[in-house]
Amino acid sequence: MWILGINAPPTGWHDSAACLVDGDGTVVAFCEEERRNRHRHSLYRKPARAAQFCLDQAGITAADLDVVAVGWDTRQLYPDRFADDAEFLAYAVGLDFGATRPTGATGATGRRGRLPEVVRVPHHAAHAASAFYASPFPKAGVLVVDGHGENESTSIWTFEDGAPPRLERDWPRTASLGYAYDAASTWLGFSFLNAGKTMGLAAYGRARGLATQPLVETVTDDFRLAVPPRAESRTTATAEEIKHHYETTVAAWRERYSAIAGAEGPSAPEGRLTEDPNAVLVAYTAQRIVEETVTHLAALTRKSAGVDALCLAGGVALNCSTNGTLPGPLYVPPVPHDAGAALGAAWTVRPPRRHPEALTPYLGTDLAESPPTGTDGLVRAELDIDRLTALLLDGQVGAVAQGRAEVGPRALCHRSIIAIPDTAAVNTRVNTIKDREQWRPFAGVTRPGYGARLWEQQEHLSRYMLGAARATELGRRVAPGVVHVDGTTRPQVLHGDEAPAVGAVLDALERQGVPPVLLNTSFNGKGEPIVDTARDAVAAFRAMDLDFLVLGDELYRKSPNDRKRAAS
Question: Is 153 helix (H, G, I), strand (E, B) or coil?
């Protein structure tokens, strides 16, 4: 049995993705469309290339699929949009399912061409499944918080192996923490898809000890936001109605932020927002709304489930600062955002068998499957870890592309830029290389034993770099390049050989008596998705002022002419 999960338009209009699972619920491949078409967030684009990648990994065709599971209830949101499932699949996926073959024709595996069954999974149910089934927990409470699903913005679930999921309660769309955060992001001049910038800017408010207006009230088993929910249909709202509610609610929140700031927007450009006290105040105010509410909701979720194990999903679960404030045991999957609905939809159809380990994030394109192109003029050598370590100790900044790509928005050392973070100056250089605002923070990566000395322990969050942790005195001293202004970092801990080159460098540093910690950030240029293929990696290496590139088992460096072009 083959199930293809998708997040796809018209409902999943950003972060479209595809995920293939087999009859045991095992994930064969997972890919976000942006990695294949090179358009960040893949707005309004069907996941055709991502889906084809998944099929290729299994060696099957679209005609072999039994189910296509969609992480939205498209029939509610677009009741008259599609005449039948064939029309929907053509629009949303764009694969050739072989259903129009002449009678008697068969696919590559001998099965007659026919349309797969289409299963529509409510959006929050898909998010919840993606979190629980990826976790190592046999039972957990699951909290889903995002902008909105079909009829809710927040939901609480109980999941247990061998039992159907149980929805405990939910809150309406316009009581949305995601909407409140979107409003702050757009007030600041960012896109709602750049909420990570808002979070990074909010840290300056925490560092300055700013007082914020209380815009959320938490009561025994509920919460009330300063912008109250609107009257809305909870069962029949269409996409047009939801769009109207989103726009009016976000506008109301923006008015509230403008009243707090005494201005309609920032007075400083994006690169200097930390100099604008109103911008910092708005960012920190939105951050406090999320932190206070999610802390309360997490306690309610644990109470409802009757266990301490907690999973988070939905776009708000990407808020590392909030995640880091919650007590464990806590798990967030590598794809808590809308791309993860593809995974959760597939797993709703066929849950995986219980596994003692959390989901591996390395489910994307294998670098070894296509040879690099565009390497003419680069200086190539076999990868030598001692040589690579020496380059890093010499202050050089480089990139690593090895093995199968990570899924999700965090680079986890298979498609990463790395450096030694022993000075704050490295932060400045890497932000310059990536053409980012200088106030943006970076993350650190190390081994478990040393991580315990550098920052507060997180257990599961540091697997995917999804939780902020307060740095220790040692961490601030040996790795200032990855400690943000509020004294936190967003750590990753590498186990075993899951990221061979970076893991080997960390081990080499430790053998030499050097703190085994590296700066780790995503390997991509400004406005681009994380690199996917060897070709992407070489192109990005040439375009950016990087010193070296680890590509599989080879080390590339630039000729003097290449370095001049990248620097210009």
Answer: coil
